[in-house]
């Protein structure tokens, strides 16, 4: 049965850490409380029948270290002894891992919680700042990650701990603001009649935005993938792609600003995930900050809030490593998500 309390927060070293996405899984081993994670192993989830096989072949077969504990972040709800992943056929069975991998203690977190932990773990050298403002130490923070979907988490500091607040903020409504928005919005593909953040602010959403911009002007869209659209927008070779990316960063600024108001994130707003890193020039061009700060009567407050893009390629793994080394630094509830042999 899952352990019902996290009183015994300390994990025994060596600790295997793993960030399991829909497409890629990244693993490393933390040997003690003072060490950085060892060599990172990155595998495609589709190359292995199970997570146990991936850990055995990609990690354990290459080291004499025998992890006693594991902290795994997965894309999907952690509920019960069998954890199914979104966008990947792997099933995480922590109790079976005691036998198959020799583990004694397994903690399973949500992938976006790991991104939130990374915000605390990584220094500014792993971030690119978008606009003005300085972070207030220990003030609230917000993490937004446009990727396959739109992940959102708050991060608050209380009782000397950083507490991630996971949620489904990527599914909040988003609406038009300008006359041009009102021409584009009717052409966006909706979900049950609604435009949520995720209809625009993710890979699929960028394609949706691009098609809507084309339709608003009666033009034929040429591209079908997010990468094609960002490439054509960044080198300014296609006017529809340029406007689609401007629309995307404007909507991202609008949603980031709303979330910053909710969490009063004077500690900063942090953009994570695969897409933000690839569109830094577009985020710096001005539309993002203008939309972020356009929050009357609180525009002055918004102008002082810093925004960062996390540029570290293994941010979530760093967040997990920080948690594995010193779990007491974080208010991460492990009840129902920790299994001990
Ligand atoms: N150059 C690019 N510009 C814009 N979007 C891109 C680009 N390259 C990839 N994408 C999109 O980014 C999304 C994937 O984002 P991300 O890399 O954050 O993945 P993920 O959901 O975290 O998955 P995993 O953890 O398995 O890698 C996909 O929708 C993909 O089409």
UniProtKB/TrEMBL annotation:
Location of the protein in the cell: Cytoplasm
Any one GO MF annotation of this record: ATP binding
Source taxon at top rank: Bacteria
InterPro entries per record: ATPase_NBD, Bacterial_glucokinase, Glucokinase
Keywords for the protein's UniProt record, in alphabetical order: ATP-binding, Cytoplasm, Glycolysis, Kinase, Nucleotide-binding, Transferase
Gene3D superfamilies per record: 3.30.420.40, 3.40.367.20
Keyword Transferase attached: yes
EC number of this enzyme: 2.7.1.2
Cytoplasm found in the keyword field: yes
Signal peptide as annotated in the record: none
GO biological process, one term: glycolytic process
Recorded GO CC terms: cytosol
Catalytic activity field: D-glucose + ATP = D-glucose 6-phosphate + ADP + H(+)
Binding site for ATP: 18-23
HAMAP family per record: Glucokinase
NCBIfam families per UniProt: glk, PRK00292.1-4
Family according to the record: Belongs to the bacterial glucokinase family.
The protein, known as: Glucokinase
Gene from which the chain derives: glk
């Amino acid at each position: 049965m899952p352990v019902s309390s996290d009183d015994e927060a300390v994990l025994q070293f060596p600790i295997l850490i793993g960030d399991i996405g829909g497409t890629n899984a990244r693993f490393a081993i933390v040997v003690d409380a003072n060490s950085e994670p060892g060599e990172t192993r990155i595998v495609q989830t589709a190359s292995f029948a199970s997570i146990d096989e991936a850990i055995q072949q990609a990690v354990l077969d290459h080291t004499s270290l025998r992890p006693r504990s594991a902290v795994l972040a997965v894309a999907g709800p952690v509920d019960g002894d069998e954890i199914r992943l979104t966008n990947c056929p792997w099933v995480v069975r922590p109790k079976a891992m005691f036998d198959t991998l020799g583990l004694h203690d397994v903690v399973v977190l949500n992938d976006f919680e790991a991104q939130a932990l990374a915000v605390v773990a990584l220094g500014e050298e792993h971030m690119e700042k978008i606009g003005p403002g300085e972070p207030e130490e220990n003030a609230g923070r917000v993490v937004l990650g446009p990727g396959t979907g739109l992940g959102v988490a708050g991060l608050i500091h209380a009782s000397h701990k950083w507490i991630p607040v996971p949620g489904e903020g990527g599914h909040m409504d988003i609406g038009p603001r300008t006359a041009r928005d009102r021409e584009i919005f009717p052409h966006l593909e909706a979900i049950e009649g609604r435009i949520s953040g995720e209809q625009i602010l993710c890979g699929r959403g960028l394609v949706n935005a691009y098609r809507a911009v084309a339709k608003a002007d009666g033009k034929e869209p040429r591209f079908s993938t997010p990468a094609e659209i960002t490439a054509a927008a960044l080198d300014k070779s296609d006017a529809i792609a340029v406007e689609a990316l401007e629309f995307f960063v404007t909507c991202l600024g609008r949603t980031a600003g709303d979330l910053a108001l909710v969490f009063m994130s004077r500690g900063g707003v942090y953009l994570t995930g695969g897409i933000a890193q690839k569109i830094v020039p577009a985020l710096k061009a001005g539309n993002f900050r203008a939309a972020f700060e356009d929050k009357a009567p609180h525009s002055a407050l918004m102008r002082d809030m810093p925004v960062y893009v996390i540029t570290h390629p293994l941010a979530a793994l760093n967040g997990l490593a920080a948690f594995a080394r010193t779990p007491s630094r974080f208010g991460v509830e492990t009840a129902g998500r920790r299994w001990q042999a």
